[in-house]
Design goal:
It is built from 14 helices and 23 strands. The protein is globular and about 65 Å long. About 30% of the residues lie in helices and about 25% in strands. Strand 15 and strand 16 form a beta hairpin. It binds uridine-diphosphate-2(N-acetylglucosaminyl) butyric acid. The site of uridine-diphosphate-2(N-acetylglucosaminyl) butyric acid has 24 residues, from helix 1, helix 5, helix 6 and helix 12.
C-alpha cells in the first residue's frame, strides 16, 4: 500500500514547475480518434488518468509511441470502434469523451459507464441532449451508453446546455466537428481546457469559433488531419502549489503558468493576506503573517474552481476567524472534511456549505484521500500541521498530480512516498 508521510512545519522555498493540464490532456487524447491520423502531443502530465486514457486507445488499436517523458505520438488510423470493457473506461470520468469522438468518427459509440471522483450523482443528460440535437439516437442498454447516428450521419444543430457542463461542452464539440453543417452550443463551459481542445481541433482542420465564451460555433468539416500540439499548463496543479506555499509560509516561485487562469485563486489568496507577485509565466507566492479567513463560493469558470475547493478548505482550517465555503458546482464535495477533522480542524458541513472556525494549528494524523483534490488538501494540511501526517489513498492523488512528492521535496518539504506490500 502506498502512503505519503509528511513531517509538517517546513516553510516551502524555491522554484516549482507546473506540468501540463490533466483536464485538457484527456479530451485531446480522445479527440485524436477523430483525426484517424498521426498526432504529436507535447507537455502531457505523467498522471494515472492520462496514462489510462492512452492505454484505452492502445487497447482499441491505436499506436502509441512515447517520444519523451512528456510527449507522445498517437496514430489512430487503425483504431477499431470497439471499446475495451468497463474495467478500463469505468475508472475514469474522461472516458465519456469516447462517446463524442467515436460518434464523430464512426457514427456509432458504445461505451461502458465512466467512473471518476465520487461527488454524488454525475449525470450525462446534457451530453445526451447534445448528441440528440445533432441527430443521434440513444439506445437503452444495461451495461453501457450507446449512441448512434444512423444512416444519414450527424448534422449540425442548436444545443442549449441547462448547465455550463465541461464534459457536455467537450462531447458536443467532438461530435459536431465532422457533422454536416453548423452547430451552436449556448451556455457552453468557458474553462481554459475547452479553449485548449478547440485550439487542438482547429489545428487538425476543424472550424470552431467562440471557445472560451458561452456561445461556441462549429462549422462541420469533411475530415480532420493530424497535428503537433502542446497542452496548456495545469491551473489546478498550479493553484494547489500556491495554496501549499500559503499554508507553510516561505517563498515559492511557481513557473510555467498562465497567470490569467489563476486570477480567482490569486485574488482569494490576496484577501487572506498572502503575497502573489505576477510575472509573465510565473507567480511568486509569499506569506509573512498569519492567514486571514475568508468566504468563497465555487462556480463555473471564471468563478472560483471547484477543483480548488478542498485545498482552500485545508488552508482556511488554520486561518483566523470563521470562513464559509459554498460549493456551487457539485452536490457533494466535502467528504475530505471528515479527514481534516482527524487533524483537529473545526469544520461543520450543512449541505453545500462548510463553516470553518480556524484553529491555531492542525495536528498530524493518519488520514485517507477520498478523491483526487481531497488528497491534495490533506497534503497541504500535512505540510502545515504540527507532527506527522500519514496519507493513504495515494493512488487517487496520482490520478492528477505529476510527482507531487518529488516536487514538494525540492521545495524543502519533509515528505516521502512509502510503498509497502500489504
Ligand atoms: N451535470 C449535469 N448533467 C450533465 C453534466 C453535468 O447535471 O449532463 C452537472 C454535474 O453533476 C455537476 C455540474 O453539472 O454538478 C458540472 O459538471 P461538469 O460536467 O462540468 O463536470 P465534469 O465534466 O464531469 C470536469 C472535470 C472535473 C471538474 C469539473 C468542473 C474532467 C475529466 N473532469 O468534470 O475535474 O471538477 O469538470 O470543473 O475534466 C478533477 O480534476 O479533480 C475533477 C473532478
Amino acid at each position: 500500500m502506498k502512503k505519503i508521510i509528511i513531517n509538517g512545519g517546513n516553510k516551502l522555498k524555491g522554484d516549482i514547475y507546473v506540468s501540463g493540464m490533466k483536464n485538457a490532456a484527456l479530451p485531446i487524447i480522445f479527440a485524436t480518434i477523430l483525426t484517424g491520423d498521426m498526432c504529436s502531443i507535447e507537455n502531457l502530465p505523467d498522471v494515472t488518468d492520462v496514462n489510462l486514457s492512452l492505454d484505452i486507445l492502445a487497447a482499441m488499436g491505436a499506436e502509441i509511441r512515447r517520444t519523451g517523458s512528456t510527449s507522445v505520438i498517437i496514430d489512430t488510423s487503425k483504431l477499431s470502434p470497439e471499446c475495451p470493457d468497463n474495467g478500463m473506461v469505468g475508472r475514469l470520468r474522461g472516458s465519456t469523451y469516447l462517446l463524442g469522438a467515436l460518434l464523430g468518427r464512426f457514427g456509432d459509440a458504445k461505451v461502458g459507464f465512466s467512473g471518476g471522483c465520487n461527488f454524488g450523482v454525475r449525470p450525462i443528460d446534457q451530453h445526451i441532449k447534445g448528441f440528440q440535437a445533432l441527430g443521434a439516437d440513444v439506445l437503452n442498454e444495461d451495461d453501457c451508453n450507446h449512441v448512434t447516428a444512423g444512416a444519414g450521419g450527424l448534422h449540425g444543430g442548436s444545443v442549449y446546455l441547462d448547465i455550463a457542463s465541461v464534459g457536455a461542452t467537450i462531447n458536443v464539440m467532438l461530435a459536431a466537428v465532422t457533422a454536416r453543417g453548423r452547430t451552436t452550443i449556448d451556455n457552453a463551459a468557458r474553462e481554459p481546457h475547452i479553449v485548449d481542445l478547440a485550439n487542438f481541433l482547429n489545428m487538425c482542420g476543424a472550424r470552431i469559433t467562440g471557445a472560451g465564451t458561452s456561445f461556441i460555433k462549429i462549422m462541420g468539416v469533411e475530415e480532420l488531419h493530424g497535428c503537433s500540439y502542446t497542452i496548456i499548463p495545469d491551473m489546478i496543479e498550479a493553484g494547489t502549489y500556491m495554496a501549499a506555499a500559503a499554508a507553510t509560509g516561505g517563498r515559492v516561485n511557481i513557473k510555467g503558468v498562465i497567470p490569467k487562469h489563476m486570477e480567482t485563486v490569486t485574488a482569494k489568496l490576496q484577501e487572506m493576506g498572502v503575497g502573489v507577485d505576477e510575472k509573465d509565466e510565473s507567480l511568486i507566492v509569499t506569506r509573512s503573517s498569519a492567514l486571514n479567513g475568508t468566504n468563497l463560493k465555487t462556480f463555473f469558470y471564471p468563478g472560483f474552481p471547484t477543483d480548488m475547493q478542498p485545498q482552500f478548505g485545508a488552508l482556511l482550517a488554520s486561518a483566523s476567524g470563521t470562513s464559509v465555503i459554498t460549493e456551487g458546482v457539485f452536490d457533494s464535495r466535502f467528504r475530505y472534511v471528515e479527514e481534516l477533522a482527524k487533524m483537529k480542524a473545526d469544520i461543520t458541513v450543512d449541505g453545500r456549505t462548510a463553516t470553518i472556525n480556524g484553529v491555531e494549528r492542525l495536528c498530524g494524523a493518519e488520514v485517507k484521500a477520498v478523491d483526487l483534490r481531497a488528497g491534495a488538501a490533506l497534503v497541504i494540511a500535512g505540510l502545515a500541521a504540527e507532527g506527522t501526517t500519514v496519507i493513504t489513498g495515494v493512488e487517487l492523488i496520482e490520478r492528477g498530480y505529476n510527482d507531487i512528492v518529488g516536487k514538494l521535496r525540492k521545495l524543502g518539504a519533509d515528505i516521502r512516498l512509502e510503498d509497502t506490500e500489504e
